[in-house]
């Protein structure tokens, strides 16, 4: 059962309880009993209305719903040894997170029974709090010692021990348990994620391994990949390391591993993307183009939703856009300019990822330049530059030279960065907030200032790792009329504990819920993101993702510098 569903059991009776969106019978089913779920399309809170066919993802099973007039029905047999059944309803075009985005049905369990799986998972979440002072190291130590006195011959138990030892940086103990898992649990998701837990802390510089242990970690990860473990998260991190050339595996071995991943589930688009990425890195652009094309076709025709219940809209959309972008680059190298422009135009039209959108404009400029259409190239480069794409400035200098000659480029560029006549920029809306110290304020209190906004969360090591980089951005504009603010959903005590040892120079603001994201025209789910707002309250820059180092901040600096010029 997914951890999301275990940790947030939400019921669909919210809103108009006289006509709930989803009902089920029996209300509290038992193991082995059949549950009938009914989706009411005419319910006031229903998102999936009309005649649209819908699917239910119940646990890990995808079941097409049977439509009867204004309702859709689906049946599911409750498996043994579960405390809840999780369900999700969606169509190929729209998910239904406001009402049914991960709800659970309580299951009648035998008296005295408890879920060992759930208990071990909750311990892991509990131990995670040691980083933020929510649980003391002494308490974690006592719980680890208690577990070891009553060992369980189970992969999740061993996985949990590696995680516990990681909290203390006891790497000899971590590797002792990993060695046991390598012998007993090879091929399991728990072993893959135990390896990943160590790899993740190494990547985020939470721990530093000696060269021998680091080599062992990478060897065991590659060994597990060769064994055929194709867990999504595991392959993501394996692939990141492979792209850096940090592996002893040959290109042929990596290709064999990724081909095997594709063959295991050819309907899952991300497997084709990983293989295409490998071919692209290896310089085989023909095979890369074919792989991206397969992934794009799968996504656009809804195959992942139909077969595996892929409802992670952000991940799916990101892969679609990145595949379109990569395929366009390949087609442009073959001088298939029309096909490249079609891919780039679709990526821009979908408007679901500002980071890829600005890259698409930049690549479009390159295509027009290849066609010797320098005025169109200039327009595309300008749009990429306005959206903060740093490489666009050098490209604009070239097209300016072709269009206007050698003189006046800097003055022309400053003029182009100002909002165009008639351009409609999103104007932020007002909302209330409190500071970390408990002071109350409103968003419109910041009107008249250039405001740089960051949304982050302490639960992600990569997000925590960007804080020193963001502090450099604050230092770069010290003494200038720029205000830096950050939002986090973490509790005030947790934030204060963490920030006492890891200073963050942004002003810390807190709000309830995610309505502030809509007020800033930002994604309410993803984090981190960065926004720059001008003194009139208009969004002038939006970037999903963080800054891994100072060299990646050129785009946001271009926008801030322009806004400062506009104030002169």
> Helix share of residues?
40-55%
Tell the overall outline: globular
Radius of gyration: 26 Å
What is the number of E strands? 15
How much of the polypeptide forms β-strand, as a percent range? 5-15%
The total of helices stands at 24
Strand order of the largest sheet: 10-9-13-12-11-14-15
Biggest β-sheet description? 7 strands, mixed
Mean pLDDT: 88
Class by alpha and beta content: alpha+beta
Weakly predicted, low-confidence segments: 1-16
Head-to-tail CA distance between termini: 58 Å
Descriptive overview:
Among the domains are: 3-106, Macroglobulin (MG2) domain (Immunoglobulin-like); 116-260; 432-567, 3-Layer(aba) Sandwich (Glutaredoxin). It is 51% helix and 13% strand. The protein contains 24 helices and 15 strands. The strands form three sheets. A seven-stranded mixed β-sheet has the order 10-9-13-12-11-14-15, with helices on one face. It has a four-stranded antiparallel β-sheet with strand order 1-2-6-5, with no helix packed on it. Helix 5 (155-168) packs antiparallel against helix 6 and helix 15 packs antiparallel against helix 16. The longest helix is centred in the middle third of the chain and has 21 residues, at 313-333.
Short précis:
This protein is α+β, with helices and mostly antiparallel strands.
């Amino acid at each position: 059962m997914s951890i999301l569903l275990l940790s947030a059991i939400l019921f669909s009776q919210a809103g108009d309880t006289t006509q709930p969106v989803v009902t089920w019978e029996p209300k509290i089913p038992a193991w082995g009993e059949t549950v009938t779920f009914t989706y009411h399309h005419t319910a006031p809170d229903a998102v999936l209305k009309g005649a649209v066919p819908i699917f239910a993802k119940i646990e890990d099973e995808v079941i097409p719903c049977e439509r009867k007039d204004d309702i859709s029905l689906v049946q599911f047999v409750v498996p043994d040894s579960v405390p809840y059944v999780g369900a999700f309803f969606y169509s190929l075009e729209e998910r239904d997170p406001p009402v049914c985005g991960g709800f659970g049905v309580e299951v009648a369990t035998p008296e005295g029974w408890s879920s060992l799986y759930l208990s071990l998972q909750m311990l892991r979440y509990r131990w995670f709090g040691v980083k933020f002072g929510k649980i003391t190291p002494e308490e974690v130590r006592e719980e680890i010692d208690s577990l070891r006195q009553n060992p369980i011959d189970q992969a999740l138990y061993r996985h949990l021990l590696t995680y516990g030892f990681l909290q203390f940086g006891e790497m000899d103990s971590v590797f002792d348990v990993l060695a046991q898992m390598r012998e007993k649990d090879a091929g399991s998701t728990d072993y893959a994620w135990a390896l990943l837990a160590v790899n993740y802390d190494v990547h985020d510089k939470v721990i530093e391994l000696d060269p021998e242990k680091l080599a062992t970690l990478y060897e065991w990860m590659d060994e597990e990949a060769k064994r055929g473990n194709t867990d999504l998260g595991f392959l993501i991190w394996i692939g990141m390391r492979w792209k850096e050339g940090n592996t002893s595996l040959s290109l042929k071995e990596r290709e064999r591993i990724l081909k095997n991943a594709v063959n295991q589930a050819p309907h899952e688009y991300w497997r084709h993307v990983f293989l295409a990425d490998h071919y692209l890195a290896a310089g085989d652009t023909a095979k890369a183009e074919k792989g991206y094309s397969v992934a794009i076709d799968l996504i656009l025709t809804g195959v992942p939703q139909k077969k595996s219940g892929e409802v992670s809209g952000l991940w799916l959309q990101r892969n679609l856009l990145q595949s379109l972008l990569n395929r366009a680059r390949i087609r442009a190298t073959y001088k298939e300019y029309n096909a490249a422009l079609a891919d780039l135009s679709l990526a821009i039209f979908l408007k679901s990822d500002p980071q890829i959108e600005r890259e698409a404009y930049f690549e479009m400029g390159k295509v027009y330049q290849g066609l010797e259409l320098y005025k169109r190239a200039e327009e595309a480069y300008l749009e990429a530059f306005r959206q903060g794409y740093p490489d666009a400035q050098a490209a604009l200098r070239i097209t300016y030279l072709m269009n206007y000659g050698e003189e006046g480029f800097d003055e022309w560029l400053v003029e182009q960065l100002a909002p165009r006549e008639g351009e409609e920029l999103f104007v932020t809306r007002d909302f209330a907030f409190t500071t970390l110290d408990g002071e109350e304020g409103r968003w419109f209190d910041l009107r008249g200032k250039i405001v740089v906004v960051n949304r982050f969360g302490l639960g992600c090591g990569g997000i925590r790792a960007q804080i020193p980089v963001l502090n450099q951005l604050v230092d770069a504009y010290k003494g200038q009329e720029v205000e830096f603010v950050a939002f986090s959903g973490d509790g005030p005590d947790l934030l204060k504990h963490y920030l006492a040892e890891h200073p963050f120079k942004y002003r810390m603001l807190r709000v309830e819920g995610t309505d502030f994201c809509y007020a800033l025209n930002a994604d309410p789910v993803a984090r981190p993101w960065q926004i720059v707002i001008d003194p009139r309250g208009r969004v002038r820059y939006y970037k999903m993702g963080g800054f891994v180092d100072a060299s990646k901040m050129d785009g946001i600096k271009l926008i801030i510098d322009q806004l400062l010029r506009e104030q002169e």
